[in-house]
Amino acid sequence: MELTKTLRSEIENGIAELGMNFSSFGERSGINRGIFSAILNGTPPKPISLNQMEAITRAFGKPEGWMFDLYIEECFYDGKPNRRRVEPFLIRCAELGRTDCIREVLSRLLEDLKHVSMIFDIAETLFTTGRKQESLIFYECVVENEKYHHSERLAISYYRLFHAALGEDNEQNWRAAMRFEPFSGKLPDHYRLDGLLKLANVYLLLERWTEVELYSTELHEFVQAIYEIEKKKARKNSSQKPIPTERPLIFYYGHSFILREAVYEQEGNYEAARQCIDAYKDLSDFELPLDKSGRAEVENFKLYAKANEMNLEVLAGNMDVLDAYTEFLDENPDEVLPSFLTVLECANKYEASIDPFVDHFSPALQSYNINTLNYKRTSSLNRYASIFYELARYHFRQKRYDRALSYALQCLEMTVKISNKNIFMKSVPLFEELRSFANAEQTKTYENLMRSVYLNV
């Protein structure tokens, strides 16, 4: 118990340096004199709780986390872990960034793998209270040490790690998706819905259409099954709580059709895509009670349907809808990015001239700020990259070479930032076609971008 004695001697020395006794220091720290006596002089000494340790720290005027490395021994008093001290101590260490103490405690806990359940509970406490980054070290510990491959907590841990890993970097998102995939089917139903939706969206941004079809189909079938179960539950007992999904069930229901619609559009099956739109364009007859957020989703899907109906017209080559489309987008600016991209792709596909539409919406692209994007940030970044690429192609076709070069460089810069290899691989040959029209500054910018890619490979 040498470490414990050292911790107690530090406390005794601190009290002596202040010129206090147990009684006066007890008043200063808020800890009873008798408790101090039991902590320091008891046979054996009374274990110190985390609250007491932090009260002592404040009384000494020490920084938070003072003597935490020595406090670890209190968590294993008599050599056994005490959950009432271990759990709050690890959570506090996570809050203070004391990974050194966390790793030491986890190492000692894992001498007996039955403690994996406690580690998982700590991770869940941190994650569900908004401390996602702090929870990751605990989830990683669970996935490395869980004995049972089909364990629900193992699947949830992989789901949490996947959720936390998603960000701007497409390569990172892909790796996170592949790591999570084998466990998506082992999740509890309310997590599985969200996991499938996130998987499908990751692959949608990566334009990996085989995986998009796989997970959008699985999501669609699963959400339909959950919908039927929830309707039966509601008919039997209207007061029964609904499945505790992260978003309202109607959100997953509608998006399962949107994802299938995207697959059909990619295949050129516009009739099937239109049937998907018809399925979510008016969900006011959804057969489950809707709260405020659920009713808001009904309105969102109406909006998506209107935009996507016009998208289908454009996809079929009908550019006569662009005046109506412009008016709609002016009224609904959140829909500009996805819709502008679709129109540009189709204009390039059908070699159409749509200068009024392009001139109307292009200025807004130059004022965007990556750091202020708050609507589906990752999707927005990828769409900006695609829009810049399509604008470069469009202006190249119109023989506006300087504008084409400017957009090609913006596209390359964005794709390097977010690791979007698909668009990057298309943008490089596009710039090479334009290179003869580039000035010295544009050429230098391009070469610097290529050098940054080479150095970071």
Radius of gyration using CA atoms only:
29 Å
Order of helices and strands: HHHHHHHHHHHHHHHHHHHHHHH
Enumerate the spans where pLDDT stays under 50 for 5 or more consecutive residues.
370-375
The rounded distance between the terminal residues' Cα atoms is 51 Å
- Structural shape: elongated
Q: Strand portion, in percent?
A: under 5%
Sheet having the most strands = none
Q: What is the overall pLDDT average?
A: 92
Number of helices: 23
Helix residue percentage: over 70%
Structural class: mainly alpha
* Number of distinct beta strands: 0
Description:
By secondary structure, the chain is mostly helical. The chain has helices at 2-17, 22-29, 33-41, 50-60, 68-75, 83-96, 99-109, 116-128, 132-145, 152-165, 170-180, 189-206, 209-236, 249-267, 270-280, 292-315, 322-331, 336-349, 355-366, 377-397, 401-418, 421-434, 440-456. Helix 13 packs antiparallel against helix 14, helix 16 (292-315) packs parallel to helix 18 and helix 18 runs parallel beside helix 20 (377-397). The longest helix is centred in the middle third of the chain and has 28 residues, at 209-236. The protein is elongated. The two termini are 51 Å apart. Residues 370-375 have low confidence and may be disordered.
What order do the helices and strands come in, and which of them pair?
Blueprint (H helix, E strand, L loop, with lengths): L1 H16 L4 H8 L3 H9 L8 H11 L7 H8 L7 H14 L2 H11 L6 H13 L3 H14 L6 H14 L4 H11 L8 H18 L2 H28 L12 H19 L2 H11 L11 H24 L6 H10 L4 H14 L5 H12 L10 H21 L3 H18 L2 H14 L5 H17 L1
Helix pairs in contact: 1-5, 2-3, 5-6, 5-7, 6-7, 6-8, 8-9, 9-10, 10-11, 11-12, 12-13, 12-14, 13-14, 14-15, 14-16, 15-16, 16-18, 18-20, 20-21, 20-22, 21-22, 21-23
